[in-house]
Model the fold of this input.
Amino acid sequence: MSETEAKAEAIADVSVLTPILYLGFLVTTFIVFTFQYRKRRLAKIVQRKPLLKENYAAEIYQQLKSLSTPDKPHDRVLKAALIRRASDAVLRSIKLRELEPGLNKLYQEGLIGEDIHKQFEIESKVLELELKEILQECDIYKKGWAPTFFPVSQEVCMNEALRRRLKIMNEREEAFAELWQIESTAASELKKLTGTEVDSKNKKKPKKKN
Done:
């Protein structure tokens, strides 16, 4: 083989290997970039404040269920804790449904970042898994309990929401009554029932006898 032919073969080998090496470099760079980008985005999502509050009802139920035999609570206690957990999950699902249209609109208009939208999707998936787990726990205690379990949990959720609203209304009424130095409806009703007067600081004063 002549020297010219050897040089031609070497050039041919280099010309074949160059695109392969270049393609391999591009693929490796893309993989590293994708990994780092996902890692940074996940770190941002983890550090960001959750859209919903901590799920204390689920933590309490898991702690009660994990107790050993001597300290294990009665099944009625566990059922009540499961209903409380389900009512909290119902409330969280309602809040997410209320947030969804606004977040989607803001995301489409570019007013919020992808990390917030992704966080909303993750919390929605977590809540979906939470409801499935509650359904499985429900079947453990009693077969066929699910059709009546979730309506009861929804009723508990609505009753608690109603009590919170009534409490806020009473607190606002007392605050405005103290601000304008007038007698609130609750104080007026209490005076009618007990025959005592209630001042702006909710201290009872007995009526003076003539």
Q: What stands out?
A: The beta strands are 196-198, 204-206. The radius of gyration is 32 Å. Residues 51-143 form one domain. Confidence is low (pLDDT under 50) at residues 198-210.
